[in-house]
Amino acid sequence: MVQVTNGKMNKLLNTPLKAFTLYALLVLAGSIPAYYYIVNRIWLSEIDLHNKFVKRKIETEFSKIVINDTILTQSLGLWNRIEPGIDLRPLAKSVQKSDSLYTVMRATNLHSRHSNRFRGLSSYLIINGKPYHLTVETNVEEADEIISEIAFVTFGFFVLLVIGFIVLNQRISAKLWQPFYKTLHQIKAFDLSSQRSIVFEKTNILEFEELNGSLQKLIEKNISSYQEQKEFTENASHELQTPLAIIQSKLDLLLQNEALTGKESEIIEAAHKALARTSRINKNLLLLAKIENQQFVDTEAINLSQLMSDSLEFLSEHIEAKNITIEKQVEQGVFIEGNRILLEILINNLLLNAIRHNVENGKIGVEFSKHRFIVSNTGHNHSLNTANLFKRFSTSSAETPSSGLGLAIVKQICNRYHWQIHYNFDQQLHCFFVAF
After folding, report:
1. What pTM was computed for the model?
2. What is the pLDDT of residue 8?
3. Residue 408 half-sphere exposure toward CB, CA atoms < 13 A
4. What class is the 206-292 domain?
5. Three-state SS annotation for 166-187
6. Contact present, 357 and 396 (Cβ < 8 Å)
7. DSSP H helices in 190-205
8. How confident is the model over 167-202, as pLDDT tens digits?
9. What are the structural domain ranges in the chain?
10. What is the pLDDT of residue 144?
11. Which CATH architecture best describes the domain 16-147?
């Protein structure tokens, strides 16, 4: 069973949203200097046009009036003081230079330490036949001040984009991925033991249609394999058990022959025991195959305390043979949903394991509630090898007549119902815990 950890897994629909959001953030962040560069160029272009217009206006106005040099000089001095952005001064000699544009940083007044940016026009005029140098400067500080406004507006657009991404992602993507979620729901509900295939809904999306087609083929192949395994299990059970039973009966007949020598009787008895063990292994392997193929599909509410009492009574001869004491701590009225045959096998295998690996005059502890089931027993004074404990043909002692499949079957039954089983050695007791 696949365990999904919500803290680490991301939903498919949210994965592109993060990439889109990051991309939008980078683009909008990069647009701030681009906006500033464009606005600044437009602003400077407008100021240059304004300064040139001021120059033409001054040139036109002076060409219309007639004024002597003395009054002109006095007027220019007053003009330069009143209009700090315009400076008109006489030149000693005439120069032939074209207009030039420049940018300068300087304080707006003598008492200010803050420098502002000015855009200037340097030009040359002829007034009353004499050369003059004209400079027109305009403060462009406003262009620098709009950078914060641009950033604020850009952030606002980013928020709108993110909200739009989320809304569109939820509405459009959810509708787009609806066939996928239907397929996922059908796959989760699929039960191989039912041997019923899935009919996927038709969709006009090519990728989803190909996915459904591939899943359809895979499911049909698994159903076919499951059916073949099931038939093999049934055939093997019949074909192998019959010759084993015949051989066993023949050995029984041989043992009844009074003409046998002691040595011959020992050989036949050893063969009889080996055959009995082979028969048990065959039955257990077939049982494992049935559990893995989920052939035990019937479930019911089973009284666990009653089932435990029946198992202890069934195994009473084995318990008395070793003079084992049973200590029970049982919660009455505990019911477990499951297959009765599998639960009987689970309890019997754990109890048999506790009996076989116990010591003379030992004890077995049985404890269960609605949450767990514990079987503990005395035995060897050391912990078992937990790495191989629940593997097939793993035995803790060569002295016991075990097939090595009992705990492997218990493990498979626990896996069948998604129960947890583990072992520990505590206070000289070997303990097996099953958590429901």
Report:
1. 0.49
2. 62
3. 19
4. mainly alpha
5. HHHHHHHHHHHCHHHHHHHHHH
6. yes
7. none
8. 887 787 778 888 888 888 888 888 776 777 888 888
9. 16-147, 206-292, 300-435
10. 58
11. 2-Layer Sandwich (3.30)
